[in-house]
Amino acid sequence: SRMQQQQRRMFTVALLALVFILAAVSTTEAGKKEKPEKKAKKSDCGEWQWSVCVPTNGDCGLGTREGTRTGAECKQTTKTQKCKIPCNWKKQFGAECKYQFQAWGECDLNTALKTRTGNLKRALHNADCQKTVTISKPCGKLTKPKPQGKLHL
Length: 153
Prior knowledge:
InterPro entries: Midkine_heparin-bd_GF, PTN/MK_C_dom, PTN/MK_C_dom_sf, PTN/MK_diS_sf, PTN/MK_N_dom, PTN/MK_N_dom_sf, PTN_MK_heparin-bd_GF_CS. The protein has helices at residues 2-33, 36-44; strands at 49-50, 54-55, 61-68, 78-85, 97-101, 113-123, 132-138. It is α+β, with helices and mostly antiparallel strands.
């Protein structure tokens, strides 16, 4: 009986020692999984600087832009990215400058134009955009009111 108690104690001590060793090994393994040298390489790379989107055909639609970044230990310093210039944007202000426009103003009878102002809403890929822009367009057919009366067919 005393011999069995001693064997149980030895077994318990051995088991606890094994558990302790396994815990120590697993924390060492966890420490190895975090690779600090990769973090250092990432921080060496500068931010990407992108050129404007250059359409493949015409002045809008699908195209490409070039990206560059600095860093002595940085593996990739240039890359090309697909991009798209929406064909309904006001391209005269730069295809990568998006504006929020106010309502059209009253018709200027001297020029037969109406104007509205747009404030810069978003500049894509660090584009150099004007803060506010003004556009004009012909007033349309509001010359004289239609006569009320019979329809002439």
